[in-house]
Amino acid sequence: MTPHFSQWMTGSGPEADIVLSSRIRLARNMAGQPFPHRMTAEQAERLLEDVSAAVKELQSGWQIDFRRLDQVTPVERQLLVEKHLVSPLLVQEPIRYQAVAIDQRESISIMVNEEDHLRIQVLLPGLQLDEAWKVADTIDDALESRLDYAYDEQSGYLTAWPTNLGTGLRASVMLHLPALVLTRQAAQVFTALAQVGIVVRGLYGEGSEALGNIFQVSNQVSLGLTEEEIVHNLTVVTQQIIGRERQARAHLMAAEQLLLADRVGRAWGILTNAKVMTSAEALRLLSDVSLGHDLSLLEAPMPFTFAQLAFMTRPSYLETEAGHPLSAVDRDQMRAETLRRHLLGKTL
Amino acid sequence: MTPHFSQWMTGSGPEADIVLSSRIRLARNMAGQPFPHRMTAEQAERLLEDVSAAVKELQSGWQIDFRRLDQVTPVERQLLVEKHLVSPLLVQEPIRYQAVAIDQRESISIMVNEEDHLRIQVLLPGLQLDEAWKVADTIDDALESRLDYAYDEQSGYLTAWPTNLGTGLRASVMLHLPALVLTRQAAQVFTALAQVGIVVRGLYGEGSEALGNIFQVSNQVSLGLTEEEIVHNLTVVTQQIIGRERQARAHLMAAEQLLLADRVGRAWGILTNAKVMTSAEALRLLSDVSLGHDLSLLEAPMPFTFAQLAFMTRPSYLETEAGHPLSAVDRDQMRAETLRRHLLGKTL
């Protein structure tokens, strides 16, 4: 069975050649209840029921699918993580009183009993932080009218981790920055960002390694600023990064177009002819091909977005498509076949 | 102008998947004349005239084109070297009294005033040492009836270098041995050959490096054996090497077919998509593609032989096709374009 794509992977929205997605996440907890890691089984079960009831009342407006995670298979849970609809933390064993509500377009997800009692997340394609914030705020208001949030005049929303105190808001964007990496400017740009409270992480890499030149850029603190200020600040910072990436792309096109076209061509050639491929290599080559597409250096059409193709490299995608678990070698073979078939547009 | 191919590059003949070509070369000198490196201008000019006259008398039978090398452009001279029709030594500056006679199929070449006064070479596709020897012997007899060869009862034919004394015969085969290299057996096989008087050289590499896994295997001494014995010995040795290469190919197909198919696919993908390519990389990838073709692992048809494609990587081929000298960068670009176009069968 081929997994379907989330709406945020469609590559639409402003600046979508560089901004793969925009995300807003709100952390909320119930008054008078211990945080999830300190709850008893009865407390967790009770809270899940209360929150579930409130979320289900939203359903008429949002067409939300509500699932207890202990009733979802491990590979489906991993698929949700790789679509960024739930956090890796939510699917760690043992899973007992956790749940997630997801809308049909997979733009909205509401996690229950993760680090906080409630996390509301909105994920949109391109640079749409403000739009995502408005959707999250509407859902938050609707739930707040049905639930008793833990809120303190001085600290704002109370959260399990102090870094989320205040607005409980984390805003982030997922950026494809191949030209900043190729021109060796990425480290310098990210150091400057750290000084203004912006965190940059590689998306799929261990530690600071950014596979596929994909970076997640987010606000570090949520205390002392309004939600609108946080969203506005990150939007401005993102626009600055986009400007730097565009400059770097223009420089490469002016100074090294032949070498760039060679790099893009080779990446396409390998992706459409290899028989075995690791995830790390696939993301590296897809980044090159995607950059080539953006700069009109790619001779073939690119029938899927970078976000969709990157999703196809993930083990849970491949195991879902295969219909059974795969050994590491079989997975590398399935990955090569899947990317090849999809890039050549042979089938969905 | 696209250079044409020599007959030996056609990939016909026995064992042609492994034996690119078979070569016989006879060294002959005229009695009572100094060797070429000791001749005066007058002596060299006179000898060139005498030998030319004898060679031209062969023309009715052989359709031989006779050229003084000082009347051939440097790029054309280099093209003759890369077709293996003349030795690199023959085209070294200054060129004054040297000449070469070549038949229409470019199987026969007769060099005048190289290291020896006369070198008769016959080059055929596949394993055809005996056939090549018979052609060379016929030409040798025809010339000997018109010229006064330096011959000594004890030493045989007198030659400028002692290693050519005796029969003056050098037999060699050009072999494509990718599986022996991949399975790391090549060094061991070549060491064993050295012990029975067989020399192995990389064809296009510096020193012992064999670009494209192409090796030239030849007899080391020509004294103390008859011509027939030399030709027979090298044929037997070549058949043994072929057997080892076939075993190694079978082993790879049985034990590592997926990895081999991956290697072949990637080589094809890069060759048909790169925009810049060095000669060393091109030969390495062409070797992989050629092996893939031999083992039916290549999905696309291979419209040219390995020998033809290897010839296309050479600077003189590319400069002839371009019609003007090329910088190193332009050559790497022209090489990538040329190989791509020919592999995709877009044109001759």
- Overall pLDDT metric of chain A: 91
Order of helices and strands of chain A: EHEHEEEHEEEHHEEHHHHHH
The radius of gyration of chain A is: 21 Å
Given as residue ranges, the uncertain stretches of chain A (5+ residues, pLDDT < 50) are none
Determine the oligomeric state from the structure.
Answer: homodimer
Q: In one word, what is the shape of chain A?
A: globular
What about the largest sheet of chain A? 8 strands, antiparallel
Ends of chain A: how far apart? Answer: 11 Å
Helix content of chain A: 40-55%
DSSP summary: helix tally of chain A: 11
| Class from secondary-structure proportions of chain A | alpha+beta
The largest beta-sheet of chain A arranges its strands as 2-3-4-5-1-8-10-9
Strand proportion of chain A: 15-25%
Number of strands of chain A: 10
What does this structure look like?
Two copies of one chain form a homodimer. The first copy, chain A, has a domain of 93 residues. Chain A has eleven helices and ten strands. An eight-stranded antiparallel sheet of chain A has the order 2-3-4-5-1-8-10-9. Chain A has a two-stranded antiparallel sheet with strand order 6-7. In chain A, helix 2 packs across helix 10, helix 7 packs across helix 8 and helix 10 crosses helix 11. The mean pLDDT of chain A is 91. The interface between A and B is medium-sized, with 17 and 17 residues.
